[in-house]
Amino acid sequence: PFDVLVVGGGPGGAAAAIYAARKGIRTGIVAERFGGQLLDTLGIDNFVSVQHTEGPKLAAQLEAHVKDYDVDVMNAQEAAALIPGGANGLHEVKLKSGASVKGKTVILSTGARWRQMGVPGEAEYRGRGVAYCPHCDGPLFKGKRVAVIGGGNSGVEAAIDLAGLVAHVTLIEFDSQLRADAVLQTKLGSLPNVTVITSALTTEVLGNGEKVVGLRYRDRGTDEEHLIELEGIFVQIGLVPNTEWLGDAVALSGRGEIEVDARGATSQPGIFAAGDVTTVPYKQIVIAMGEGSKASLSAFDHLIRAGA
Ligand code: FAD
User: Fold this and answer.
1) The ligand 1 atom nearest the CA atom of 131
2) Which residue puts its alpha carbon closest to atom 12 of ligand 1?
3) In angstroms, rounded to a whole number, what is the distance separating the alpha carbons of residues 194 and 114?
4) 287 C-beta neighbours (distance < 10 Å), count
5) Spatial distance between the Cα atoms of 69 and 22, rounded to a whole number of angstroms
6) Ligand 1 midpoint to CA 65 (Å)
7) Is 10 annotated as a binding residue?
8) The pTM is what?
């Protein structure tokens, strides 16, 4: 068995594996796709101390850094179930391939995925005007016109954030009213360069072959189609944690995120979690790496205390 078995090969899982391996203990990492969300990311300008990089490049560097150590990397392997072993037992991770791997401790770092609208043009123009992370890509749209899709807390926060950077924000909500907290709605209403459209269903992302030039939506009251000319679309209709495979092996929040404490411990002794898959707020690369390192140190601490 591994001393530390990491599930997930994104920034969180990679950091956890490096920190564990540096303790000289048996470390394994199972990843469906090593690099995680980085593989879908173009420019990265907020990875502190690196002025600019690109997702696939950072993913390759992460993998190289992990492989500098004695880590058993099991790439292209999907975990299908977790069977906790209790306080001093071995935890088992069953793989989709039918194999199973065991660890004295386990670090869950399976990340999350942005919920997509599923309309024509969205996938085609992803990274070319269609964006999901205002903290990451907001500055690319400085002085331009953007839409935010979704009137929950994250959509309204994104609209407020973007309004300070871009020329104009159109917030589009499917329901007849916004669902964000009142204080956010009040703030949004005070901004001169924000238009809110409710009861609107986005039907198409329009592009010119190179980048986004507009968005089409249907007014759900009148059934009329409308066109908005703009350069950017931020989709804020939810971040879905990759926890379906866990069932009820560890405690999850109402949104399906793994509940962790300040040390990254889950509800099961010896099982830790880090990154976008957890309840830790603000899903970012530096945060996932910090949390992965922390969970790994906690796992090591657990091992010495358990006398393993
Ligand atoms: P992930 O990166 O999601 O990695 C999860 C890992 O788990 C992957 O290896 C995946 O294959 C694996 N996995 C999932 N399920 C299973 C399973 N059942 N079995 C085995 N393995 C599994 N953040 C920034 O800080 N700056 C940016 O500029 C930025 N831009 C972004 C742009 C885009 C388009 C996207 C999508 C995200 C962006 N982010 C950015 C967010 C950032 O990518 C995430 O916060 C970060 O990748 C989270 O790391 P993680 O390790 O928690 O999860």
Assistant:
1) 34
2) 8
3) 24
4) 17
5) 7
6) 17
7) yes
8) 0.90
For residue 227, report the distance from its CA to the centre of ligand 1, in Å: 33
pLDDT band at 42 (very low <50, low <70, confident <90, very high): confident
Predicted pLDDT of residue 87 = 85
- Residue minimizing CA distance to atom 40 of ligand 1: 284
Continuous segment of H or E residues that includes residue 182: helix 182-189
Ligand 1 test: best mutation among 41, 108, 154, 237, most atoms within 8 Å of CB? 41
Q: What distance in Å separates the CA atoms of residue 121 and residue 123, rounded to the nearest whole number?
A: 6
Which value, to the nearest 10 degrees, does the dihedral of the CA atoms of residues 54, 60, 65, 66 take? 130
Give the model's pLDDT for residue 17.
Answer: 98
In this predicted structure, the answer to whether residue 308 has a pLDDT above a threshold of 70 is: no
With a 6 Å cutoff on the Cβ, whether 101 touches ligand 1 is no
Mutate to test the pocket of ligand 1, among 7, 37, 41 (most ligand atoms within 8 A of CB): 37
pLDDT mean across residues, the chain:
96
Interval between CA 176 and ligand 1 midpoint (Å): 33
Would you say the CB of residue 243 lies under 6 angstroms from ligand 1?
A: no
Global ipTM: 0.99
Give the integer Cα–Cα distance in Å for 40 and 22: 29
pLDDT value, residue 215: 98
Q: List, for residues 180-189, the tens digit of each pLDDT value.
A: 999 999 999 9
